[in-house]
């Protein structure tokens, strides 16, 4: 168990460019979450997957954002036509959801990808 | 709107003192309440998860309580150490275990 990994760790891009981030969850974790965190704030939920199905998207996730988890393992988050307001830390988390497991399970977070849009 | 609030935003204590961190939430129909630690520039580390049917959870020097009726959770850290310096975040778990976070309390434990 190597934990949740995210790549790249840092990304600097110019406004208008597209960027893609990758998240590799803990193996066999069936749920995967994306959050965004700006400086001095708590993380904000963006979207989550159960296996390959994207079950919920926040209203924060504009049309420029798209996330995939094609085989139910790793996930990618793409931001098209980046804006300066997209600058933030993008966090991925995974968990092992069991139907009979009760109300919630521990989420394990990756180190994040810090995005700076110039 | 479902909100989670943490007050104070920052806290400084001398080593050895007990820490008391507060979290309040507006919707009592929660699934769980979770506490995390975040070191500067890093991801989050889960500390404790309290299911909605539970009143408290303990792990080592950490104890967290949950009072749904008043919409409050408290994290106690006994005998604080400089290594406890970090930002502590509470999060309300909803359907799908989607988390709504508070703004965090930045803790400094002075040697």
Characterize the structure shown:
- The complex is a heterodimer of chains A (118) and B (111).
- Chain A has 118 residues and is mostly beta strands.
- In chain A, 0% of the residues lie in helices and 47% in strands.
- Chain A is built from no helices and eleven strands.
- In chain A, strands 2, 4, 5, 6, 9, 10 and 11 form a seven-stranded mixed sheet that branches.
- The mean pLDDT of chain A is 92.
- Chain B has 111 residues and is mainly β.
- In chain B, the strands form two sheets. In chain B, strands 2, 4, 5, 9, 10 and 11 form a six-stranded mixed sheet that branches. Chain B has a five-stranded antiparallel sheet with strand order 1-3-8-7-6, with no helix packed on it.
- The mean pLDDT of chain B is 93.
Care to give the gist of this entry?
The complex is a heterodimer of chains A (118) and B (111). Chain A is an all-beta fold and 118 residues long. Chain A has no helices and eleven strands.
